[in-house]
Specification:
CATH topology: Undecaprenyl pyrophosphate synthetase
Strand content: 5-15%
Structural class: alpha/beta
Bound molecules: farnesyl diphosphate
């Protein structure tokens, strides 16, 4: 297993797309886009320059995901913990959606993609909330890949919110305690109709989950790479899918060869 993985990471990165098994593409891929700050620091630039470059990368990865047949892509753009950053960095990040959506939405519509945002959007500025709302409404009837952006998102907050909603239904008498099961909990999350994440990618060499999609990643394969997000490419995205396809995905059962 270790040797195979070593072999995969040493292959030239542009050779993986052709090797992908089209019948084994993960339906739902999630990405923790990390390393913008370090990318900027390495170049003697302010952290905001890393975010600017990082937001520009998103489009190429969305396109690569759509082309390979991924049905849902969820990216972590801003966590509930990111508010602890310096004010000027936060306000810069919050200024990004306006330009991003303006140039991205025509492509979303052309590709028949559905854009969604998950998280507590109420803490965002009214302007950003409107931009996001408009983008979701505009693309709501599209039938292609779902591109899901997590903004002011926290996995624990999502579970707290789901628990509160379930408790309210129990209190009202519309749900019995005995009826609460995994499906009921799943249906009260931000992602009620999305299947579990099958592949979670995190860039920048950090090997943490950082409160991302805690419920949905229960059986996900993790792919960690040292590449910083602003340097992440479609080729490396294909390599992550290839690594996924070469994993022994047992989900608690036995491998087919055993
Ligand atoms: C991680 O790098 C990046 C972030 C916390 C913010 C990323 C935000 C975007 C790419 C733009 C958001 C766009 C939309 C459309 C809402 P880091 O700053 O943690 O990097 P570091 O770990 O090297 O410091």
């Amino acid at each position: 297993m270790l040797n195979l993985f070593k072999k995969i990471t040493q292959e030239p990165v542009d050779s993986f797309q052709d090797r992908l098994n089209k019948d084994d593409i993960p339906k739902h891929v999630a990405i923790i886009m990390d390393g913008n700050g370090r990318w900027a620091k390495q170049r003697g630039l302010p952290r905001t320059a890393g975010h600017k470059k990082g937001v520009g990368i998103i489009e190429s990865i969305v396109e690569a995901a759509g082309q390979t047949g991924v049905e849902m892509l969820t990216v972590y753009a801003f966590s509930t913990e990111n508010w602890n950053r310096p004010e000027d960095e936060i306000s810069y990040i919050m200024s990004l959606p306006e330009r991003f959506f303006a140039s991205f939405m025509p492509k979303v519509m052309e590709a028949n993609m559905q854009l969604r945002c998950i998280g507590d959007l109420s803490r965002l500025t009214p302007k950003v909330q409107t931009i996001i709302q408009d983008a979701m409404e505009q693309s709501a009837d599209n039938t292609g890949m779902i591109f899901n952006i997590a903004v002011n998102y926290g996995g624990r907050l999502e579970l707290v919110r789901a628990t509160q909603k379930i408790a309210q239904e129990v209190a009202k008498g519309t749900l019995a305690v005995e009826e609460i099961n995994e499906a009921i909990i799943g249906s009260h999350l931000y992602t009620p109709e999305l299947p579990d994440v099958e592949l979670l990618i995190r860039t920048s060499g950090e090997e943490r989950v950082s409160n991302f999609l805690l419920w949905q990643i229960a059986y996900a394969e993790f792919y960690f790479t040292d590449t910083l997000w602003p340097d992440f490419t479609p080729d490396e995205f294909h390599r992550a899918l290839y690594a996924y396809q070469n994993r022994d995905r047992r989900k608690g059962g036995l491998t087919q060869s055993k």
